[in-house]
Amino acid sequence: MYTRLLTQKDAVNKWMERYGVRFGIYKNGTFKEQIFPFDAIPRVISNSDWTELEKGLKQRVDALNAFLRDIYTEKRIIKDGVVPEDFVYSSKGYLPQCEGITPSKGIFSHISGIDLVQAEDGTWYVLEDNLRIPSGASYPMIARQLTRKASPETFDGAKVFDNRDYARMIREMMDHVNVDNGLEVILTPGRYNSAFFEHSYLAEKAGVVLAFPDDLFVDGDKVYYKGLFNERERVGAIYRRLSDEYLDPMTFERSSLLGVPNLFQAYAKGNVAIVNALGNGVADDKGIYYFVPKMVEYYLNEKPILKNAPTYLPFYEKDRNYVLENLHKLVIKDVAEAGGYGVMFGRDMDEKRLEEVKELVRTQPRRWIAQEVINFIDLEIMEGDERVMRKADLRAFVVSGKETKVWPSGLTRFTRDPKSFVVNSSQGGGFKDTWVMAE
Amino acid sequence: MTTKMFLSAISPAKADRLYWLGRYSERVCTVLHILRKYYDAIIDDEHTNSHKVFCSKMGIPCEVENSREFVHKYLYDETLNYSVINMLERVKDNAILLREELKSESLQYIELAINFMKRAGEEDLKLYDIQYVTDVMYSFWGAVEDRIYNSKVRDIITSGKYIEKLDLYIRFGYEAERIEDVLSRLERVDAFEGDFYNTTDFINLKQRIAMPGFSTEETLNVVNSLFAA
Known about the structure:
The structure holds two protein chains of two kinds. In chain A, 30% of the residues lie in helices and 26% in strands.
């Protein structure tokens, strides 16, 4: 199916270099841009597999959006004892400032990045929900454009869903939540953000303005784009690519030079849509993850289609005892960390380290979750001219606007280290295009 | 789908990036062109001081005695803020922040130029080998004309281009007709009207160019203050 493409892999990589497909990384305090290693062998997802995944992803994101609406207003799920309040209010992602605020059209997670792995028996497991600023969609998007350029015959008759309309999906969603038909912008913290390529590429492809913090200002609780001759243009939707804490120095981190002063007030008054909404971190907290299947049942009255990886919360005594007894075969994650950091495999720890971690679990049970290690499938990658097998995950993107839609593709990340399960680009991983078959 | 973006204002920071993108891109093209002329003199006489004349006109220090060594450093030395590789870095610094306006198809030429220049430095390629950089920079200018749909954006880049051309032509003593031609092109740029430029300085510049001995520091100062915005 893609054999011809493999003969063109050098040509594809040259195109990638030429298009500046990079990501940034800080090493020893220095910013470096590097090529995101691309593997030409696509991940192929059959149509039947996808149909089921698509249903499950929509369901999961709809439930997560319902959870966010509830948490910042009625809190029914806490009152009904489904999610313990401690998990909500002690989450770093919970923002008390957002209490009572319902964003434009009631959508909190407009762009959700759901990380999945497929076990050897074919079952898909959700590893993580990313509801704040999930990144990575631009890479398979441009990879498809460039692979089609370098090897058009590969796609001749191949019944693969075209994934190049992701930017259109984003634009439609922004149009839907836009307040007062204002300007639509992608707000980037700047070139030295690790995902700056994505910010600029999505702005280009979605046909929206790439705005830097100094380009925006708030006056009378409305957001404006600053013109060269003091003219101003009302902003209706901001796809922000900076974290909640840096978004508005008047409300959050006071030392932030990246934010737009008083942006939060404009948002709270409903004068601008912010994509994704503020405070979403409470729902993609690693501790809250445990409760997502329960949310599906609670809000949608449906059986969850997608499974979580078997997860234990040391917060609960029964789970804590299991974790302490079985730590050597579990993976343990610090709920406050992301990007592959704070992940420890029990099997890699010596006795002394196991005891240290057990002590941490005993003394700070809320800080950790533990999961069974899923033996997820390896995918083929090219290493030089040789095909080798490596661990890979899939980040699926779900866009919630007028409807909830799943992008028929995704970012497949793989580890280049044969011994590693950690696929994050910040840890040296590469990426593949994801082909979803149309039939 | 993109009408809203076309109507949008251009922020001061964006205008600044567009302007300097135009200036640095033109600097790469014109400087390489002029440098080739000076290099031509070195072919006949390796001990010529032509590189010192070049440095003096550019207003940059001349710290090496040997012309060939100068050309190598001027092209490739990343530690010299006035080297051609650094001019290209400045082009990229501005362009990379403007992808949504320039489009990836235009940006690729800058990537090609800078990647080639880096490899050329490692392989110590000679000046005539880097004609490729000139070729792709002209492709970039073609893409600017063709791919940028927002005329205000295009005009600010083009204004930067002509102002840089004026600066270099005056520095290197080009004849008045050539400079007047650039001035008239600048005048025809739509954005180069009203608030975008300093009208008084523009009239002053035209009068200066009409006088003998116009290649002075004062004339250059006027050129560099033209883009009032």
